[in-house]
Amino acid sequence: MRPAPLARRLGLADAVFLGLGSMIGAGVFAAFAPAARAAGAGLLIALVVAAVVAYCNAMSSARLAAIHPESGGTYVYGRERLGEFWGYLAGWGFVTGKTASCAAMTLTVVAYAAPGLGQPWRSALAVAVVAALTAVNYFGVHRSALATRVIVSCTLLVLTAAGVAMAAGPSGGGPLVAWPGGGGVLEAAGLLFFAFAGYARLATLGEEVRDPARTIPRAIPLALGITLVVYAALAVLLLVRLGPAALAASPDPIAAAVPGWLAPVVRVGAAVAALGSLLALILGVSRTTLAMSRDGHLPRFLAAVHPRYQVPHRAELAVGVVVAVLAASIDLRSAIGFSSFAVLTYYAVANAAALTLPGKARAALGLAGCVVLAFSLPLPSVLAGCAALLLGASAYGVRRIRR
Fold this sequence. Notes:
Blueprint: H1 12-30, H2 32-39, H3 43-67, H4 74-81, H5 84-113, H6 121-138, H7 141-168, H8 184-196, H9 200-204, H10 212-242, H11 244-249, H12 253-257, H13 263-294, H14 313-327, H15 332-354, H16 361-374, H17 379-402
Helix pairs in contact: 1-7, 1-8, 1-10, 1-13, 2-8, 3-8, 3-10, 3-15, 3-16, 4-5, 4-15, 5-6, 5-13, 5-14, 5-15, 5-17, 6-13, 6-14, 7-10, 7-13, 8-15, 13-14, 15-16, 15-17
């Protein structure tokens, strides 16, 4: 019996806002400081490198989504174009990496919304945040799209106000652009890739987008282009206002770079932006979980679609529970590095799948970029990512033997 389909309710504007909600909140408030610690004044170069790799990945994803408009994203593309194992590996990388991203965004919300809160109330608030957003997704993707549109609009208003204030402030000194020694730029690009990876959520929603063959290839580059403009403008302003050293040392660089009266507004905006990222992240992870469950790679009961709300409600609840547990126990910096490695693996499979289509140059560049950036990340992140992929591959092998 064919599984129940999801409802196609999302148009172009909805898809673009979901992509923006996934990217802008994650990158602006979580990735600049660790990237600046790695690259220093090479931050802008790292941003360009990350953007080029993200663009190649986005184009590969858009082309594949037009051919395979199903929920699951690269899990489906790898399975259909390369074979079952590669689709499974991509899906495993996406689910594990983006679950870590969900935890990172939950911790970002808590850090900005309640900076002085101690344990156990800090963990309790993290669990409450995950529960609330899981409930929003449970009652339908259309409501999630509307909520994301409001959140993204508020975030852009806050960032615009912060940008104007930073432009009017004094300079922090130091070079604006420089190439540091070693692999600092590549490490920073790998960390910044965490901020660009939101367009994956658009591909995973292929079964819920109206006219996906036309909508997704338009929505992905639009969302990515808007995000790059926002990131580049803020990176320049932060480097001019704080300087590379102060930017690298600040846990809250945008709030630190604006006048004191505006800092509380920025912190509220950061919390709202992270909520937008978390909302879209849970949405995307649950859809890949749905696709893998349909194929038996995850428990099949997770493939159920709610008869009224037409969403994968069991998958969403399962993802929500796992994220809540991680958010109560994981470290933010480690979560970002692990997530970047896993998601770069996911996009490496997407580019490899795109190599089976005409016009291979961009996909080849994207594949090479994913591999280089993944292994340029901090060593603990690389080791943890390799261990997670090995665990997933071992589980696949055991399942094949049992068959």
